Amino acid sequence: MAPKSKQPAKKAVSQPAKQPAAAKPVKVALLGFGTVGSSVATVLAAQKFAGIQLTHIFNRNVERKRTSPAAKFVPKDTIWTEDINAILASDVDIIIELMGGLNPVESWLRKAITSGKSIVTANKQLIAYRGAGLARLAAQHNVHLVHNAAVAGGVPVIPGMLQGLGGDQVTRLSGIVNGTCNYILSRMETGAAYATVLADAQQLGYAEADPSADVDGYDARAKLCILSRIAMHAELDPDAVATQTISTIDAIDFSYAKELNCTIRQVSRAQLEGTTVHARVAPMLVPMASPIAWSHGTQNMVVVSGRFGGDVVFSGHGAGGEPTAVAVVSDLLGVAQGCKSVSLPVRKRKVTGEFLAPHYLRFVVDDKPGIVSAIAGALAKVGANIDSILQRPGYPKHRLPFVVTTEPCLTSTIEKAVASLAKLDCMLERPLCLQILTIEDKPDEA
Ligand SMILES: NC(=O)c1ccc[n+]([C@@H]2O[C@H](COP(=O)([O-])OP(=O)(O)OC[C@H]3O[C@@H](n4cnc5c(N)ncnc54)[C@H](OP(=O)(O)O)[C@@H]3O)[C@@H](O)[C@H]2O)c1
Predict the structure, then answer these.
(1) Nearest partner of 280 among 236, 314, 316, 320, judged by Cα
(2) Does ligand 1 come within 6 angstroms of the Cβ of 126?
(3) Domains with residue ranges and CATH for the chain
């Protein structure tokens, strides 16, 4: 056997580990550097997510924003601009839209989608009125349109419904989606007057100088339409959803509500029945045992009822810069990681404000004999039965507030009775009519 030639031992050469090619950063532009936009910059700076690069910030009068305290969180190489075309023509991958409103936002986002950019937005009006068309355009161009921050701010109700409840058949939604109204009503519950609390809400930045979008229910109905689309695949015309203001609620209503073991909240509710959606945004009496009664201050709460899974409750901070920014940044990360946005088929649905429910009627009258029988007569004429009559002592006869509650009847029935009762000479104000939620409300009641 030939002797083995003695080979010098091979020196082990340590090869450098194969490095993956540096991933290209995802380029992001922010439209709007207001409450939420500046908070998004703060959250991005604090979290330092690898692979995300904030390349542009767009705002009108941008110098004012560039020199604001919040700008210290913005990377030095970010471009501040007042020229939207600088962004639309750039190689930005994702646009975060936090300006609000329909115009000019819709046309800018359409151009961005057409040029292959994905969109993250918290704009509820845009999504409620134009969401279906924008989603179709995004699908055609194979980009994402994500808007989980548009409802309930920092509470992940939309992703919860899409990912967590997509397997159920949701038939009913109810809850509190406007933090301003909840702040006002939950403070009135402790004895404060509407005007005082509204002024406080304006000072704290919870309510606008013109509060009508919140207190008259328009903000909440936009959100209810978005939730109905996600949960019930129902496309609703927001203008067809019945709304009722909270501005006619008085301290006395909370006293009477308490006697009925209830409180008052602005409730947004929708129920799917066949091809019709029963939807309404209004102040309602809510039983203290319902989770909806437990939300205070600017909290949001949404109860989603599924055919198979029963009730699921989402709750948390529905608004505010940082909670909303968390939802926006979470959407941004999802899109950057290429998570496929779930798009569900939606159908246009007829909307009605009709519900079958017990009602609370509060009258303020110049007290005269025969008033109760006149009220009972008007209710009997439309077929509504009285359940109880409540009258607290200590009010002057010439301005006497008292309450009648009815057994369940249709909204249109009770509205007919209220219209005729409002014409009585003794009525000093239009009677206040509120739906009473019942714990055992079932979708097939309406
Ligand atoms: N705030 C919340 O808690 C919250 C919660 C959920 C969802 N959202 C939604 O998030 C979006 C942003 O809300 P926000 O509270 O951050 O509003 P905001 O404080 O008013 O910020 C909007 C920003 O966009 C700028 N802007 C508006 N229109 C513009 C235009 N045509 N051209 C250039 N810049 C324009 C504004 O500039 P100026 O300073 O010059 O006005 C402002 O800096 C809205 O869609 C809102 O509904 C807000």
Answers:
(1) 236
(2) no
(3) 26-146 (3.40.50.720), 157-317+345-352 (3.30.360.10), 356-445 (3.30.70.260)
The closest-lying atom of ligand 1 relative to the alpha carbon of residue 100 is 45
Confidence of residue 341 (pLDDT cuts 50, 70, 90): low
Query: Which residue has the CA at smallest separation from atom 1 of ligand 1?
Result: 320
Q: How confident is the model at residue 444 (pLDDT cuts 50, 70, 90)?
A: very low
Both tokens assigned to 196: 């005082």
The pLDDT tens digits for 265-317 are: 999 999 999 999 999 999 999 999 999 999 999 999 999 999 999 999 999 98
427 pLDDT band, cuts 50/70/90, is very high
Q: What is the mean pLDDT of residues 65-94?
A: 97
**CA dihedral (272, 277, 282, 285) positive or negative:** negative
The pLDDT value recorded for residue 18 is 47
| Cα of 59 from ligand 1 centre, angstroms | 10
- 174: CA distance to ligand 1 center in Å? 27
Query: What's the predicted TM-score (pTM) here?
Result: 0.90
Ligand 1 pocket, 323 CB below 6 A? Answer: no
Residue closest via CA to ligand 1's atom 30 equals 60
- Ligand 1 centre to CA of 36 (Å) is 7
Residue 312 CB neighbour total at 10 angstroms: 17
Cα–Cα distance between 256 and 182 in angstroms, integer?
Answer: 19
* Any atom of ligand 1 within 6 Å of the Cβ of 153: yes
Question: Considering 27, 65, 124, 223, which one is annotated as catalytic?
Answer: 223
Select from 335, 338, 339, 321 the least CA-distant residue to 43.
321
Q: What is the DSSP letter of 160?
A: I
Question: What percentage of the chain reaches a pLDDT higher than 70?
Answer: 92
Residue 422 carries which DSSP code?
Answer: T
Lowest mean per-residue pLDDT among 51-55, 138-142, 244-248, 439-443: 439-443
Q: Whose CA is nearest to atom 43 of ligand 1?
A: 34
Q: Give residues with Cβ within 8 angstroms of 97, minimum separation 6.
A: 31, 32, 105, 108, 109, 119, 120, 121, 122, 123, 126
pLDDT at 389 over 60: yes
Structure tokens at 280: 């309404």
Q: Is 111 a catalytic residue?
A: no
Pocket test for ligand 1, best of 82, 98, 180 (most atoms within 8 A of CB): 98
